[in-house]
Design goal:
With 203 residues, the chain is of the alpha+beta class. 29% of the residues lie in helices and 9% in strands. It starts with a strand and ends with a helix.
Length: 203
């Protein structure tokens, strides 16, 4: 299993590899004997120390991780109320700090460029998929590959408080207009869908 420090608030460019005693690993960089002979070169000691500190903090703050879901859910409701938006994974357990949604008819690339010019930073997918033109593997696995070309992803953090829906509206995001409410959720193993929280709210 590989881990990246920046995923838990640590410095970029540092990672860890967890390998079992029977795992067969090949050298990535030849030369010195650092990293048990698998990766030559002087270790990034400050980065490693930063990774360790970030890991300790992440374990300490783990009980409060779901607090980030407040801005995510508020943003999803705002987007659904005021735009023709499809929210991915609504009503199921998912990462609290990210929101993925689709505006059919508006390509991801055009939305990203328009928002970037307006000073709003969003993405069309994960950083590791940058430059790829194939549909998102996640959207494909959900049976929604045809919507992937219009999807956006918003990431937040501990300091995120203002709902992205209000940010997009004040910045003149084109899809932000009155329209139908719609959402797409994953199905449970038995084929059923999670309960619609908006329906309970309206009730």
């Amino acid at each position: 299993m590989s881990l990246s420090a920046h995923k838990v608030g640590g410095p970029q460019g540092v990672g860890a590899l967890i390998a079992g005693p029977r795992a067969r690993l090949s050298r990535q960089i030849h030369g010195g004997g650092q990293e048990r002979g698998l990766r030559a070169g002087t270790e990034n000691v400050p980065g490693i120390a930063g990774f360790g500190a970030a890991a300790d903090a992440a374990v300490r703050d783990l009980p409060h991780a779901m607090d980030q879901a407040a801005w995510r859910d508020a943003a999803a409701m705002r987007l659904q109320d005021e735009a023709e938006v499809t929210v991915a994974g609504e009503g199921v357990v998912r990462l609290p700090g990210t929101l993925s949604f689709v505006c059919e008819g508006f390509s991801s690339e055009l939305q990203v460029m328009a928002l970037d010019l307006a000073g709003v930073m969003v993405s069309a997918g994960s950083a590791c998929s940058s430059g790829k033109v194939t549909p998102s593997a996640v959207w494909t696995a959900m049976g929604l590959a045809d919507l992937a070309a219009c999807s956006l992803r918003v990431s937040g953090g501990w300091a995120t408080s203002r709902p992205i829906g209000s940010v997009l509206r004040t910045r003149g995001w084109p899809p932000m207009r009155a329209g139908r409410r719609t959402s797409v959720s994953w199905r449970r193993p038995d084929g059923s869908r999670p309960p619609d929280r908006r329906a309970r709210r309206r009730a």
